[in-house]
Amino acid sequence: MDEAGGMIQLTDNPIHPRDLIEAVSSPEIGAIATFFGTVRAHNAGKSVTAVEYHAYPSMAVKKLEQIAEETRRGFGVDRIAIVHRVGRLSVGEMSVAIAVGSAHRRDALGAAAYAIERIKQTVPIWKKEVYADGTAWLEPEPVFGASGSNS
Fold first, then answer.
1. CA distances from 115 to 32, 69, 77, 118, 143 (A)
2. Rounded to two decimals, what is the model's pTM?
3. CATH code of the domain covering residue 56
4. Is the C or the N end of the chain the one with fewer CB within 10 Å?
């Protein structure tokens, strides 16, 4: 993605939120919405010690680019940055980050929420949780239900 449109990355390095914010900033931008997903310590009643993210890199980047473009068109936002980590992450580490720059807050906020849901549904990135007593591969999350409460 070009400088004017934001950035897309799949990386095994730590995510730096400032990089995403800079990628979507400009004098025309009046709102920047962000979403940061982190590795949590508990899931489904189990203590999580780490998470491993595995991806099909070329396909994952292509899908992230498609999501950025459909988000840009659908919400009329100017810029979007998406970075997703792969590899083994410890509890508290950032696994995914999204920044959306737009003239108005409502568009930016809606676009960020839409982008993370599409990433979870369609990008070939697989998540394996690591526990003290074993591991488990997690299924992709369902689309927001009527209650809008997905964790």
1. 14, 10, 12, 5, 12
2. 0.89
3. 3.90.1170.40
4. C
